Amino acid sequence: MKTKYFVLSAILLFGVAVLTSCNINREKKVEDAKENVEQANQNLKVAEAEYEKEWQQFKSDAEVKINANQKSIDEFKAEIKTASKKFKAKYENEVTVLEQKNIELKKKISEYKYVGKDKWEEFKQEFNSDMDAVGKSLKDIFVKNN
User: Fold this and answer.
1) pTM of this prediction?
2) Which of 28, 72, 103, 113 has the highest Cβ tally under 10 A?
3) How far is CA 21 from the centre of its chain?
């Protein structure tokens, strides 16, 4: 009989030990998961700060270029006013189109909302391409004019 109680006690102690060790592993997993979440949140905050810095720099640079384009357009419009009819007819429409594109770029940069890194990179590339096209067209007009 003593052997039965001894075996039963040993089994009971073994069962308690197994259950306790499972609970400890679960607690460790929960702690690890909490640490991972905290690290991910910190990484997200760093990434957001980097994006905000990059966005502000990009926006500032774009606005400088847009303003420079507008200044060139205004100067050319002033030249058109004092030029001959043939000159006016030739360049007035081109300048109007470039001015509209410049306005669209200004609107595009002011309305942009961050959606994700891929969309941001796509926006930057497209915007820079459009900006370069307007700048090149302005230079071409000045070269034709001279």
Assistant:
1) 0.68
2) 72
3) 47
